[in-house]
């Protein structure tokens, strides 16, 4: 990658040299400040693409910062971002409702750009729906850091007091883009304090219990999903499919999500069939 | 059960004696022939409830047939039928599409009266959708005889030439009430010769291939499911949910199926969104 960066950089610099030859000195200085910035000399880490406005040392790897083309580096960053797959951790446990976890599994695994895996308390097999015996890919202790966490429901009660799990959920939420609960999985988000001050939904028979468990949240009925930005909750069982498609639309665009829905022959998907809670200051949320 | 049969029989006979006392002798003879028949003396086997029009020996257990009330025996048969759970075998294999098998799994396992289990070629773990590792409950050789067989799709190609599997499908079809395929699982039904002379559907991208594989069937596009009676095929992936709900409605009534759909919050279910192929002589099939 380093060789590529330097080769393309040489071409861009040559291009810039030719382009700027017709400008005044003042114009040239302004253009240069817009198109050049300081970057860490390539060391193969994420800091390679971090932009700085002044020369100095990289605070991550200690290497001397060098002047580079912003256009080029932004282009490399964009390409890296789109080529990197997002990690999707599907948390499974004894008594997990089969469609709760398999709906989002189908959606993310059928869409380009997601690396989907199961994670459980340990790597011991779990039983879903009373008969589906699944060996988890990872335990909480060796699970790759997820960008998206899916918390399905079912018999979640015994896991609400599981400290390693709740701590894992809290730690994951600190860096994940999306925390998506399905059905009674919302109870786990509540237990991790992630629904405080937010709106949410859950399985129709669990709404009162969830409201009681998380009094600082507003739990909604008859809502397919509620999107608070990072924290997204869905209604019961089959609603996880819609919630996951919403996440795909949010991260990769409506066209990609529609393509996945078509592949799944889930023509019944209604893209706006949920509540998107907009940041303060913005107006009406979509809701059907 | 034997004691119960005889106690209730005594009551019914007493009732019949009182009821018939006001009839002529001819009327009585006619009524008796309608309400009495010959049955195997109770031996605890299915032949206990088999009806015979003449005295003799039971061809199954060899016991002497005795005269009994048809009303009573039909009532016992009805109660036994509704109290017995139907065995639902979900066939899983490497590359099985996760929603293909988990949709019907959710439907049948969430409904009273079904004993659902997974079956595979062997009991070795299989991988679904590239990451879900499942240990099958049964292999083809020790699987309980199913009343309903679910054949999901996905990467079914390698299994079309698997003789033990195709033979198991053929043998299961000889006694099962329902053979339900989802998505490309229809290819397995075709390979077992079960689509000959029937209408069917499958995953949108597999329609031409399936038509070629089973020229004596008529493969339909844009059809959520096709019900030929015992043989039911559904369209792709998520259509398996609808197909399974249709089976529940067919076997246990629309109210039970609606209750399951509500539990799953699958409000999007449209009960008649498929083609029901009626027996010759009957008219219009439902189709949306």
UniProtKB/TrEMBL annotation, chains A, B:
It holds the Pfam family DJ-1_PfpI. Residues 87-249 form the DJ-1/PfpI domain. CDD domains: GATase1_PfpI_2. SUPFAM superfamilies: Class I glutamine amidotransferase-like. One of its GO terms (biological process) is regulation of DNA-templated transcription. InterPro entries: Class_I_gatase-like, DJ-1/PfpI, INH-QAR. Gene3D superfamilies: 3.40.50.880. This is DJ-1/PfpI family protein. It comes from Spirosoma endophyticum. The lineage of its organism: Bacteria, Pseudomonadati, Bacteroidota, Cytophagia, Cytophagales.
């Amino acid at each position: 990658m380093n060789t590529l960066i330097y080769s393309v950089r040489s071409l861009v610099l040559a291009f810039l040299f030719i382009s700027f030859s017709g400008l005044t000195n003042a114009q040239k200085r302004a253009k240069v400040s817009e198109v050049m910035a300081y970057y860490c000399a390539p060391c193969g880490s994420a800091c390679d693409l971090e932009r700085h406005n002044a020369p100095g040392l990289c605070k991550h790897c200690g290497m001397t910062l060098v002047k580079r083309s912003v256009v080029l580096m932004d282009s490399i960053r964009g390409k890296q971002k789109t080529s990197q797959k997002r990690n999707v951790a599907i948390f499974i446990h004894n008594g997990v409702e089969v469609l709760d976890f398999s709906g989002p599994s189908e959606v993310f695994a059928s869409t380009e750009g997601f690396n989907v895996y199961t994670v459980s308390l340990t790597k011991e097999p779990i039983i879903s729906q009373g008969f589906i015996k699944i060996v988890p890919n990872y335990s909480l202790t060796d699970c790759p850091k997820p960008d998206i966490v899916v918390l399905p429901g079912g018999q979640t009660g015994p896991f609400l007091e599981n400290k390693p799990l709740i701590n894992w959920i809290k730690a994951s939420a600190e860096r994940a883009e999306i925390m998506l609960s399905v059905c009674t999985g919302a109870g786990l988000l509540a237990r991790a304090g992630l629904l405080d001050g937010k709106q949410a939904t859950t399985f129709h028979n669990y709404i009162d219990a969830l409201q009681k468990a998380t009094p600082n949240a507003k739990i909604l009925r008859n809502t397919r999903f509620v999107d608070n930005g990072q924290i997204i909750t869905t209604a019961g069982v089959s609603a996880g499919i819609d919630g996951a498609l919403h996440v795909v639309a949010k991260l990769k665009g409506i066209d990609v999500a529609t393509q996945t829905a078509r592949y799944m022959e889930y023509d019944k998907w209604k893209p706006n069939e949920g509540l998107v809670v907009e940041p303060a200051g913005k107006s009406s949320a979509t809701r059907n």
